[in-house]
Design a protein that fits this description.
487 residues; alpha+beta; Outer membrane efflux proteins (OEP); two-stranded parallel ribbon; 9 helices; elongated
Amino acid sequence: MRVSARQFALRTNSRAVAFASLMVSFCLAGCKPVGPDYNRPGYQAPSIYKETGASSVVVPPPNPAGGGWSPANPSDGMLRGKWWEIYNDPQLNQLEERIATKNQSLLQSLEIYQAARDQVTANLGASRDRVSAHRPLAGTTTDYNDLVIGGQASWEPDFWGRIRRSVEAARATAQADAADTANIDLSLHAEMASDYFQLRGLDSQTKLLTSTVSDLQNQFDLTSRRLAGGVATGADVAQAQTQLETVRAELVDVGVARAQLEHAIGTIAAADLSTFTIPPSPLDLTLPNVPVGVPSQLLQRRPDIAAAERQTAAANEQIGIAIAAFYPNITLTGNGGFESTNPGTWIQGPSSLWSLGGQAAQFLFDAGQRHALTDQARHNYEAQAAGYRNTVFKAFNDVEDQLSGLKILEQETTVEQRAVASAQQSYDLSNKRYKGGVTSYLEVLTAETTLISNQRTAIDIQTRQFVSSVGLVRSLGGGWDVTQLPK
């Protein structure tokens, strides 16, 4: 069977490229990347959390004797997705949903990307040229065509793993960026919920103080009538008025704090503050249960821990990259195409051209720079590993703080409810005694001041319970886990 010159050239090119690719692939298959392979820095998580005890905290059952339970996945028995929905507050849900699409801090973080770029070059050219007729060794032709179509490629085989280490470092860095973004997202949602519950707590304070102002106004009117009837004294009237104006001032002060929280919520939600408003709504919700899971799950659910671990992995790859600099850089090049002076014979076998080549380059003397860079990479890795362990340590401390806060606040709530009931009974008795003419208004004033103080304290404790509940959710990682990292 006969073949044309063009077919012969194309087959020759293909065989040469295939042979070169085969040889390089064979070399690569036997070359392990230089430098240490990555292993996550060790950290022994505690078997249980110490401060569990609040009724709103759900802990898993203890591991049976002999360790019969299978290892838990990151999301087993934990909050998932939109964790704020456990509070069953439609208004909070609406505000939280705005963060993903409106908050500028989160949008800024989402714009951080890692990019890789490959370069391939090709050329197509046609020219009409003239050379000097008086050049050395000049012939008879001074005008000629040069028609060229072809391509060229350059490849650096990754014999020492520098490229593979660079790819892994870039991937780990991208995952760390994704975890940082998730951490910002978690912080924004938690801050939104915390501010929102504080605002609703102030609405409860407003409701209490508004009702108290109404009662004190009635007290003042009664005392004024008693003064006119000769039963009360001017001091009683003055004390009643003082108490009335004091509570009115406290009501105004609550309004100032509420406005500031409303502005903060509007800012997180990226709303127009000139029109943004949250209707008054006292905090009358039921504190939801929060599953805490087993401590080992925290290592896979906190985005800041994931970011620190991925940064450590990237730092480990930099060691291999630094060590690869001690080995020569080997580059393979190739080009091929067609060249002719006549368009009619441009794309034909005899017009084909190709070449394969390679080179190796090695530093012979760098005054210790590569050793210094390798030492620097090792120290950076150790620093990142220490930072990872410190992040884990702080995360467990954060969880224990929130657990203890919920436990103690629940105990305080029980005590404060008894105090409110006792203060209410004392006030009712003093008020009856005053109306019966048995005691002075000072006793009523003292009992009422004590009652208001205890009622406001009870509201404050309730608000702090909700804030601590949000803090616990945040410290546990919200609804996030490492499976959400990009691959």
